[in-house]
Structure formats: structure tokens, C-alpha cells
Amino acid sequence: MSGVKGKAAIVTGGSKGYGYGIAEALKSGGAEVWITSRHQDELQRAAERLGVNSCKADATRGEDWDRLIREVTDRTGTVDVLINNAGGGIKKASLVEQTDEEIERSIALNLTAAILGSKRVVPFMKKQKSGTIINISSICAREAWPGWSVYSAAKVGLSLFSQCLYLEVQDFGVRITTLIPSWGETDFLAAANVPQRDPDTEKRVTKPRELGDLVVQICELPDHLEILDLTVLPMVQKIAPM
After folding, report:
1. CA distances from residue 65 to 59, 118, 126 in whole angstroms, order as listed
2. What domains are there in the chain, each with its CATH number?
């Protein structure tokens, strides 16, 4: 893939956080971008600020994916870039403190959604013999912390899914990358009801646009090269492995 200019790109969870920064970077590179979210007002505001297309969709629902893909391909004929960014901590708690519904939501949002989306875009990419899928994982797929068992399991699953899918599509010129960020300037911690970092630390974590620029760099690799997975850490973060 020579650049992202003119390419059709989908970014799930694109109305805020990392998704917003990724969409912004792809747009700056000249891609025709669609962002998705379950929240129409928030989605519309983000799309207007970014100057991109929007489609209200729940990434965990196959029928929403079908509607999104029809909208994109009716306009462009294909999908060149898929960023499976939608995800969330749902709840930080020990396993026995999580409800069945919270467990199912976490698996669906952090793993199943990316599988459903990839299934729908791969046929287009195989046909044109090019394309890039980037699955946004988490450092929780690499390290163990109490309270993150279900979320971590989903993200580990996402990494192995990406590797297996790559082996299925590499002969068609399609690239699959797992991008593994850690602390970022997002609302992830607040959404999972986790105490916020101190202001000085917050200034030194990964910014959404920084991750977005990295996504564009991955998409712009020479066609014969592949990054299977890439971990990005802010240097301010201290990690004590299990």
C-alpha cells in the first residue's frame, strides 16, 4: 500500500480517544474515513470536527457491520483500511465481582467486534490483493494485573486472532497488525471506574494523535513488509510483571 491517500478507511470507536486521533491522522493523510460509535450526538460532533464520514453502529452487532460496509462500499467499492479500535474496560473488578452481563459485554466489545468486522472486510481486501487491518489491543494482553482478568483474556484473544488471520490472508497481500498501546490520554480509566493519574503523569502518556500517526506509518509500509505486533509504552509508566 503506497500511502493512505484516497484509501477507504473505517475506524470503530472513532468519536473520542485513540479512535479520534487515528481518524484525524488518516484524514490528514488523505484517506476517506468513516468513524463509528453507538452514540449519535457524540459521533456527529466528532465527524464534523474531523471532516469525515460517520455511521452510528454497535461494533458487537453483525447487522450494524453489514449496514456500515454497505455504506462504505456503495461509495468507494471497497475497504482498504480497517482499524478495530472499539473497546473498553467495562469494569475493573475481581472475576467473582463481575456480573455475567459485564463479562459478556467485555468479551464482545474487546474481541468479538474485531472478528465480526474483519470477517466482512477481508473478502474485499483479498479480491484487490491489498489492505491493512489494525487491531487495537492493550498492554493487558502482555502483563497481568488483578481486576483485569476478563478484559485481558479478550485482548490476548485478539492478538492470537490477528496472528491466525494474517496466516490466512498473507498470500493475498493483506496485512494484519496488532497494535498494543498502554497508558493514553483517553477516558478508559474513568469508564472502568479506576482512579485517575496525577496531572504531571497525565501530560506524559500517549496522545491520541500520536497513536494515529503511528497507525498511518504502519499503513504506509512498503507492500512487502508486515508488522505483526507492536507495543507502545509511555516512558513514564512503570510496569512490574507478575
Report:
1. 7, 10, 18
2. 8-232 (3.40.50.720)
